[in-house]
Design brief:
The protein is mostly helical. It contains four helices and no strands.
């Protein structure tokens, strides 16, 4: 008899079999994509604002995107320096987003905060 492959495993989606590593990749990817969306939506969301406000909005998106990419590098690679940097950058990003979410109370800010808190917990576990 042959063993049938379980169709309900993470590797079906190209993710690692370890659930925490898979979660780490999904959260990092979501933060990266959310940051990219933030940058792309800056001219639309802030079309009636000054160029300075548009650039600050886009800059925040870039920061989220770079934080997500740092986490992708941490999970996919085996570099001690990347792990150390993410142990500093993730809590800093979470604190920034916590302050922002407390001030703005917008769904997308709370979602970014949730992603950042999850990534912080995963980065600090090793």
């Amino acid at each position: 008899m042959h063993s049938a492959r379980n169709p309900f495993t993470l590797d079906v989606f190209g993710l690692p079999s370890d659930p925490l590593t898979a979660l780490d990749l999904v959260l990092a990817g979501a933060l990266t994509l959310g940051g990219a969306g933030h940058v792309l939506l800056a001219p639309i969301a802030y079309r009636h604002e000054s160029a300075q406000n548009q650039l600050w909005f886009a800059g925040s998106g870039l920061a989220l995107m770079f934080l997500g990419m740092l986490n992708l590098a941490r999970v996919r690679g085996d570099d001690a320096e990347t792990r150390r940097l993410s142990k500093v950058a993730n809590p800093a990003g979470a604190v920034f987003l916590l302050l922002l979410a407390a001030r703005l109370r917008e769904r997308q800010t709370v979602a970014a905060l949730a992603l950042s808190v999850g990534l912080t917990a995963l980065a600090l576990r090793k």
